[in-house]
Amino acid sequence: MQNISTKLPTILSTDLSTNMPAALSTDLSSSLSSDLSSDQPINQAKLSLGPLLYCWEKQEVLAFYEAAKASTADCIYVGESVCSKRKELLFQDWFAQAQDIAKFGKQVVISTLALVESPSKLNDVKRCVDNGEFMIEANDLAGVNLCAARNLPFVAGPALNCYNAQALKILLKNGMRRWCMPVELSKEWLFNILNQARELDILGKFEVEVFSYGYLPLALSARCFSARAEDKTKADCDICCIKDKTGRALFSQEGKRLFTMNGIQTQSGACYQLINAINEMGGLVDMIRLSPLGLETLDMLEHYRKKQADPNYTLAANARDECDGYWYGQAGMYQQALNASAKMELSVDEA
Fold it and tell me: In whole angstroms, what separates CA 335 from the centre of its chain?
């Protein structure tokens, strides 16, 4: 099996428009077939619980997944995808959780590390790939290559910077069954990628998943921000990130929350929330992902179910600051619903 990592980087981040067929670039909407109509109902989209991105005590993790088994989630991701030093649950613990969850009729996917920078971390990924029972989520090309070499299917995670259908075609050829869109991409970008996929004759050959709730995973670093904040080195961090159940807020000098620090991972300062965009996902999205923030996420999942059943369902204000800008092609911290409300109030005042 040829190592595909030498082929992918040149096209993964290529601007979509430069590779778009002329017929599509001139008039996307007119060439869009009915199977991609964003007016179609989203009721059939599945709901997933993404991998736990934070470091929790073992009993907290077990309690969460015990409750998740009884939820209406269609798919549950398990495993460590952020930092290999987090050992509250070892691989055998995650695997046991996966087996237990599967008994409740859920699809289970084992997530792998998104930053593989040493032989020991590569071994962690290999252990997941070779589990013998469950599909994995590849968050690094190392996971893709390992699956391809074994002819195993995989989910392409959001950490793979896959921005056009040419890259998707390569991943599909090497075993991809589902693609979780990078969190910074918009509805329009997804719309265009699926147009490209149709031109390449790969439309419908993989599922599309969209990260829709939780603090957005934006970047990874070899340095640990949580350790730095406590004047510790990464080597002797004492797993201090376990103190921050949903990460550590980082504020600007003006007091605005800009980011959330989660060990080596940088996340958004506001919680991503696309519940009001569900109707816009019709015909585009097969699975909607919610990222666990605690047991409250299971309640949020049920709100998504209600929104699927009733487009007019309204969710009460969330205690967390929220954003949805990326989905609308805006700055990430932008919130469409909030700004629409502000414009309405302004127009009323002017009248």
Answer: 19
Which residues have CB under 8 Å from 130's CB, separation 6+?
Answer: 150
d(CA 95, CA 97): 5
Cα–Cα distance between 80 and 132 in angstroms, integer? 18
- pLDDT for 337: 61
pLDDT tens digits along 250-284: 999 999 899 999 999 999 999 999 999 998 998 89
Q: For residue 138, give the amino acid letter.
A: A
108 has which bridge partners? 76
pLDDT in tens, 35-62: 444 444 445 899 999 999 999 999 999 9
How confident is the model at residue 231, as a pLDDT? 85
Please state, in angstroms and rounded to a whole number, the distance separating the CA atoms of residues 296 and 310.
21
Query: Which among 301, 346, 272, 270 is positioned nearest to 49, based on CA atoms?
Result: 301
Per-state percent for the chain, helix, strand, coil, to nearest 5:
40, 20, 40
- Residue whose tokens read 């077939």: 33
What is the spatial distance between Cα 133 and Cα 130, in angstroms, rounded to a whole number?
A: 8
Q: What is the pTM of this model?
A: 0.85
Collapsing DSSP to helix, strand or coil, 292 comes out as: coil
What's the one-letter identity of residue 36?
Answer: L
What are the structure tokens assigned to 28, written together?
């996307």
For residue 14, the model assigns a pLDDT of: 45
Residue 177 CA, chain-centre distance (Å), reads 15
Structure-token match 């934070």, residue found: 54
Using DSSP's 3-state secondary structure scheme, residue 71 falls into coil
CB 31 within 8 A of CB 297: no
Q: How far apart are CA 177 and CA 194, in angstroms?
A: 15
CA 252 distance to own-chain centroid? 26
Q: Which two tokens stand for residue 287?
A: 């699975």
pLDDT of residue 29: 40
Phi-psi bin for 46: left (phi > 0), alpha (psi -120 to 50), beta? beta
Residue ranges in the chain modelled with pLDDT below 70: 1-43, 317, 319, 332, 337-351
pLDDT reported for residue 315: 84
